[in-house]
Amino acid sequence: MITTFFLSFRLKLTYRKNSIIYAFQQFPLIGKYFSNSLYGNRGIEALVNVISALIELSSIFLGKLLFISLMVFLPACLYKENVASAFLIILFFLTIVGTWLNTNMFNPTKDKYYAIVLMRMDAKKEAIAEYGYFLLKMIIGMYPFVCLFGFLSHVPWYLCMLAPWMVVGFKVLSTSYNLYLYKRKELIVNENKPTPIVWGLIILFTVLAYIIPLCAIPGIEWIMLCCYLLVIILGITMWKYIVNFDNYFTIYKKLLTPNHVILNAKSTQQDTLRKNALNAIDNKNLETSNKKGYSFFHELFIKRHRKILTTSAHNITLVAFAVTCIAALVLVIAPDAKKPVNSVMMNFLPYFLFIMYLLNRGSTVTQAMFMNCDHSMLTYRFYRQPKTILELFRRRIVDIVKINLEPALVIALALPFLLWLSGGTSESLNYIVLFVSIISMAVFFSVHHLVIYYLLQPYNINMEMKSPAYQVINWGTYFICYYMMDLKMPTMIFGSVMIVFAVTYVLISLFLAYRYAPKTFHLK
Question: Which among 34, 224, 265, 300 could disulfide-bond with 25, CB atoms 3.0 to 4.6 Å apart, if both were Cys?
Fold first, then answer.
């Protein structure tokens, strides 16, 4: 069993190592220095091994940190009178949800496909070794954060000690039940494709996790202690069933098929992208245009994609206006709400950065541009000429900014209005900063998505996403905006910084696009 585990682990590291080198090859500027000959270079392998080890460590700790801190601890803090019991209840019910979404045993990954199907490793030894390692990572990764945030929530130490084992107990129970289902009914559960019933249960238990703490249940900590111990004892008992199960090869033979393994997931993803892109076209009323040349070409694209462009912007604008009216009505009817609303307007402007990120349609629009337009047009030489690329870039950026400014203007006017209605401020410049900062956010996101699309052009001729740099930038933008919600900063300071940053970023981005887009915007 130990030998099987080390073979499987080496296989996983080798696959990850090769993937890292390949990813570096796709980065602009540095990619040309990572040739295929580096796959056997010892120095590069040592560097990549360090990166691979860091990725493995992050898989052990990072996910658990985010789960415990964001999903359990922060919501528990909202229940000020019973934070400890809320922490325990939320953790318990979300762990039940996790038994359907993340069991590892029934996750058809490439690693398992390579090991069991291609290399003919013993399916039972491979399954148990991988699963045991998965459970061990779960325990090691959860202990520091359960203890840390449990201590901050005033959870008794013995419950903190039991919590990671309770999580593992639920995983074992779920896995043994799925194995039992196969033995009795030959039903194989693919955790990547939950059934409607499972999705219903996931939603139900997620809602229960945050509703039950509202009820003042006497002796809840002792109830949770009994539940934790019961799950742990049942998990220990059912571990024997997992070890003695003999049909792993049959299960994986059916589970690790091209339809399930990620090897062919790209073709499925491409089909999905094509369908979504085609659905974005308005086929009912194919309007034409009176313009000529590239103006005609671009206007047709805008009109025929009104569902994701103008119609979507109109709907968001109406919703923003309705929310503003409701908020204003609440401030008039309930004067007690003025103080917290005024505080939000004066100190929580970073929160609106994430809202503007969500409202912006930049990534969806650029995807539609490639799928429904550039993918075909870039095969023509005239379309790849610098003059053509820059002409369409200019027209696209102007229209995307106009479209995103529609809802942004409503929000930009609403915030100063709500600030004034909730009591106002002695510094009148705050009204201007609120307005201009929201406008600058809308312009920033509009330019940002289109510029990185032109500079990195992440898709290849098969409509596959092949640019790690593009994905890293997108994810980085999301996480920065998301964590800005926790930043409490006076509107005057954050708004001024945001305006200066947006103006600087837009100018630099436009310069880079006009300088390098004719070279980088091509079909790969």
Answer: 34
